[in-house]
Amino acid sequence: MPDLQFVRVEHDEELAIVTIDRQEKMNALNAEVVAELGEAFDFVRGDDSVRGVILTGAGEKAFVAGADIGELATMNAMTGVEVSRAGQKVFLDIERFPKPVLAAIGGYTLGGGFELALACHLRIASANARFGLPEVSLGIIPGYGGTIRLARLIGLGRAIELTLTGEMFKADRAETLGVVSSVVSREELMTEAKALLRKVTKNGPVAVAKAIESIYRAVDTSMLEALDYESSQFGLLAATEDMREGMTAFLEKRAADFKGV
Ligand code: COA
Fold first, then answer.
1. Helix (H) or strand (E) segment spanning residue 217
2. Has residue 1 got a pLDDT over 90?
3. What is the residue with the minimal CA distance to atom 35 of ligand 1?
4. End of a domain among 162, 179, 201?
5. Domain hosting residue 223, numbered range
6. H or E stretch at 8
7. Which residue's CA is the closest to the ligand 1 atom numbered 4?
8. 196 lies in a domain?
9. Which one of 28, 191, 220, 256 is most buried, by most CB atoms within 10 A?
10. How many CB atoms lie within 10 A of CB 244?
11. How far apart are the CA of 205 and the centre of ligand 1, in A?
């Protein structure tokens, strides 16, 4: 377990729970938090007992209220690019993570915090969640993949509106827009997050990893390349013990016991 100041990693059976804990600053992402987030995910990646990850923010007030504005205020043209790339790398590693990552979102989820949630595979929110990309109000743009991922998720028109106005919106609108799968009470957030993620982790881990890979790859490539990639992954899965187990279990009318190989 890495010894981190702002990020905690806990285990709940086959799930890892990664919590950003910098509550005095609404869990804002300074360089250290971003680096520690990368370390936490690297650690979880190598832990074979983990089949899914919940990413959340400590406390009631915020998932993450954005990148640390105190730190951003000192940027120049050179360091600005570096800040953006450092965040982009960690967020891309989360998006390409071979185990499903679910963002359990409560409270303020702004700027880099919203971008972080967008890099996760699944998102649910509590009713007190507030979303937004206020970067333009600070004279910058979302720099951790937000100008790309939001449009891919909810469509160009809505993404442009939200990015240019920088307006905050509530959890029910996030659900209508397709930003989150569901909205639950604050008390139920972690229970519901685990229940949703367990609908994934009960499935074959190699198949889940390949599904994540194929879907994100398709977004980046042409239809023909994506189809080609999909069939190559389909073929790889046909050689796994998990496929035999999944299909045998179905035919024997029992639950599958996947080993991840
Ligand atoms: N970066 C740095 N510090 C932040 C922060 C951020 N993104 N978001 C909140 N904080 C800090 C505040 O400065 C304050 O610190 P202080 O107690 O040392 O003054 C502390 O967190 C609590 O925030 P506060 O503003 O007092 O709480 P609030 O309930 O009145 O407002 C927010 C909450 C989230 C609406 C408000 O803090 C805010 O607008 N934050 C910035 C959001 C943003 O623009 N994010 C995008 C950055 S690119």
1. helix 205-220
2. no
3. 108
4. 201
5. 205-251
6. strand 7-12
7. 25
8. yes
9. 28
10. 12
11. 39
